[in-house]
Every structure is written in C-alpha cells, then in structure tokens.
Design brief:
Elements: H1 2-21, E1 25-30, H2 38-53, E2 57-62, H3 65-74, E3 81-82, E4 85-86, H4 90-114, E5 119-123, E6 130-134, E7 137-138, E8 149-150, E9 156-161, H5 163-171, E10 175-179, E11 181-183, E12 189-191, H6 194-205, E13 209-214, E14 229-231, H7 232-241, H8 248-260, E15 265-270, H9 276-282, E16 289-292
Parallel strand pairs: 1-2, 1-13, 2-10, 5-10, 13-15, 14-16
Antiparallel strand pairs: 3-4, 6-9, 7-8, 11-12, 15-16
C-alpha cells in the first residue's frame, strides 16, 4: 500500500508540469552514454513516448560521433579534429551521412516505434529542413599577425530551419528524429554539431524547452558542485572565470543563443541517469542545470 501511495504522490507532483507544458514543444539533443547503454536507450524511448501521450511535442536531434569514428576506422580513414571540430573532407562526409542518416537515425526511430511510439527520421535534406553554410573558424592569432582562416572542409553552421516540416509532422502525431546533416546553397551536405542543430531547431520552433543530454551532472562551479540554475549573466561569468571550460562552453553558449531567440528555458542534464528527461521536467528539484533569461 505504501508503495502505491508513493507512486500516486509522484503523479500528483507531476500534474502542474503536465498542465504547464501541454501542447508545448520540447527539443532534446540525444547523445553521449544514453545512446550506447541498452537500458538507457530503452528508458529514453519510453520517456519520449510518455511525453507525447500526455500532450507534449518532443523533437529529437541526435549525435553519433563514436559511431562515425568506428566506421571511419574500419575504412582506414583518419579522424582529425581542430578546435573540437571534425575535419570533414568529401570522403569523410560520405561516411558521416551514411552513419548518421542511414544507421543511427533509423535505429533511434526503430527503438521508439518498437516501444509503441510513432517516430519518423529526417535529415537536413528532407524538405530543406536544415539549410547550412560552410563554418569558418579562425586560427589563434599571433600578435601583429593577420588572422588565418582554418578550412574544416564540409563542416557547417545552420543558416535556417524550416519549421513547417516539423509542424506538419506534429499535426499527424509523429515524433521527429533529426540527424544533424544540413544542405548548402550548392546542394552539398554539411556535417553540423548536434548541439548547434538542436539549439537552432528549438529557436525556430520557439520551443518551451531545449534539453541537452550529456555525460556530466550539468554545469559545475569552481568547487565541482552542481549549479542547478543560472541566468545569462551568471553563465557569462562562469565562462569568463574559467569555471566552465572545454566542451561545456559551446553547450552553454548554445543554450544562451536559444534563450535569446525565444526558447523558454534550456537544460544541461546527465543522460546517464535513468529517466533523466522526466526527472528534469516533471519534478521540483530537477537533476541538472537550467539556464534562464
């Protein structure tokens, strides 16, 4: 009886959040350990299906770096990185697109559908969903030397997202699952960081929430303690002080950009925790870091 009452209390606690987010869009970047561990993969699919059944509109953007590395290694193609970005020549781009669109995307769609959902897979090419341009980054400047442009090959930056494609799918109760491959004005495919795609999709849909699944607790302070909530100014101070460093910086900046473009809140959470998305959205405490205006 006690366990039954505890379950009922959990449902009652989630009721205000279910009401608040009913018919709202939540964009989720799916990556890290949550895409590898079999139990976590199952839990992720069930979380997404539950969200859809209670009236929330989830949109998934997935990564796939380890899977790409595995295939490149099999094909004896060297993986090179500059400033955390994969240098992507034509041959590498073929592998990236094959793995992300043809393998990883379809596995996620199949998993959701197997557990009772109604998912459909997309890449940026479908309906011109994600328009892209070649990303340009500059080499660290030496004093009194002109800036030097680094050529990353077919690494892209999002220029536009066509929300009509996603709105149409939502009207038919589909769950969109998006591979982070964009298409340029030249018709070529571009490899785009999944966090950046998720942020751009959330911005164009004016989503209620952007959720980034990671392999860390969230944003940590200088003492290694989890920061449960911070605003834009506090996030800037974290970056300036060096408390936020490495791969966490682009994640924070992605969240800041999304919020500046109309997204309600952004969350950086630990995808290694079972039902991480539900715990962050439907409980008072949450589990990660929320970034607000």
């Amino acid at each position: 009886m006690h366990k039954g009452i505890e379950k009922a209390n959990i449902l009652i606690e989630s009721l205000p959040y279910i009401k608040e987010f009913y018919d709202k869009t939540v964009v989720i970047k799916y990556g890290g350990h949550a895409m590898v561990d079999e139990e976590l993969k199952k839990n992720f699919a069930l979380d997404i299906i539950l969200m859809k059944y209670i009236g929330i509109n989830p949109v998934i953007v997935h990564g796939g770096g380890p899977q790409i590395n595995k295939f490149l290694k099999k094909m004896n193609i060297q993986s090179n990185y500059i400033q955390g970005m994969r240098v992507t020549d034509g041959e590498t781009m073929d592998v990236v697109e094959m793995v992300l669109v043809g393998k990883v995307n379809k596995e996620i769609v199949g998993l959701i559908n197997y557990h009772g959902g109604k998912a459909i897979g997309l890449s940026g090419r479908d309906g011109d969903l994600i328009k892209a341009k070649k990303m340009q980054i500059m080499k660290s400047q030496v004093e009194n030397a002109p800036p030097e442009l680094i050529d990353l090959g077919r690494v892209g930056a999002v220029t536009h997202v066509n929300p009509e494609v996603l709105i149409t799918l939502d009207s038919k109760d589909f769950i969109p699952v998006i591979a982070p491959v964009g298409v340029g004005e030249d018709g070529c495919s571009y490899n785009i960081n999944a966090d950046l795609v998720a942020g751009a999709v959330a911005s164009h849909l004016k989503a209620e929430k952007l959720v980034l699944l990671t392999d860390v607790d969230g944003v940590l302070d200088e003492d290694g303690k989890l920061i449960t909530s911070m605003n834009n100014d506090e996030a800037n101070k974290m970056i300036a002080s060096g408390a936020a460093a490495g791969g966490m910086i682009p994640k924070i900046q992605c969240c800041q950009d999304a919020i500046a473009n109309g997204v309600g809140k952004a969350h950086i959470i630990d995808g290694r925790i079972e039902h991480a998305i539900l715990l962050e959205i439907f409980t008072r405490e949450g589990i990660g870091t929320e970034i607000v205006r």
